[in-house]
Design brief:
The complex is a heterodimer. By secondary structure, chain A is mainly α. Chain A has one domain. Chain A has four helices and no strands. Chain A is elongated and about 65 Å long. The N and C termini of chain A lie far apart (64 Å). Chain B is mainly α. Chain B has one domain. The interface between A and B is large, with 56 and 53 residues. Chain B: Keywords: Cell membrane, Membrane, Transmembrane, Transmembrane helix, Transport. Chain B: It is a multi-pass membrane protein. Chain B: InterPro entries: MrpF/PhaF-like. Chain B: Its main location: membrane.
């Protein structure tokens, strides 16, 4: 096993792990805002690791440039898209999830 | 073409197998996230879930481009990321209600 193969396996494993975290967050978290938190952070990091693994695997100039473009693009657009959707959700008056104690303190 | 063949011979098959297996796992995770598209109580839940599935598809395309030694799949991944972003922005813009907002 060469060093490049070890790096590729490591980055792919990290990417799959963070994508798994995003999937668990999408299923288990309680409302739109916290779900978009999981979608924005964990999924973006998983995509970053996977594309980094692909760039390390190819190692040629054209593929590294395309991978870097894809990486920068995902890092900009994913939080922007989630912010647009949650802003629309908040403007529609969708409730923010709170615990029972916080709800009582707000109504007081 | 010669450079690509040299890459195939020097790179071990382990990296290709790991890439393809990871692509299969990410496809299964996207199918799990599809539950949120079906069951999400609001439209915005569904759009966030579709956004996550789109990012997963970009990951799968990138991993397939390495696993099958086809660098041109990276271009398709870039185009898919662009379309995914446009989808989310359009839905976020069209479901936005400017009146009746109470910013606290």
């Amino acid at each position: 096993m060469t060093l490049v193969t070890a790096l590729v396996v490591l980055f792919v494993a990290l990417g799959v792990f963070f994508t798994f975290v995003a999937a668990v967050g999408m299923i288990r978290l309680p409302d739109v805002y916290s779900r978009s938190h999981a979608a924005t952070k964990a999924d973006t990091l998983g995509a970053g690791f996977a594309i980094l693994a692909v760039a390390v695997y190819f190692g040629t100039l054209g593929e590294v440039i395309r991978g870097a473009f894809l990486l920068v693009f995902i890092y900009y657009t994913n939080p922007t898209a989630a912010h647009a959707i949650t802003r629309a959700a908040y403007s529609r008056g969708i409730d923010v999830w709170t615990t029972e104690e916080n709800r009582q303190e707000e109504s007081r | 073409m010669a450079a690509r063949e040299r890459t195939v011979t020097t790179m071990s098959d382990l990296a290709n197998t790991v890439m393809l297996a990871a692509a299969a796992i990410v496809v299964v995770l996207a199918a799990i996230v599809l539950y949120r598209v079906v069951a999400g109580p609001t439209t915005h839940d569904r759009v966030v879930a579709v956004n996550v599935i789109g990012t997963s598809i970009v990951i799968v395309l990138a991993l397939l481009s390495a696993g099958l030694d086809r660098p041109e799949y990276l271009d398709i991944a870039i185009v898919y990321a662009l379309l995914n972003f446009v989808l989310s922005l359009v839905v976020g813009r069209f479901t936005y209600q400017s009146d009746g907002v109470k910013w606290r």
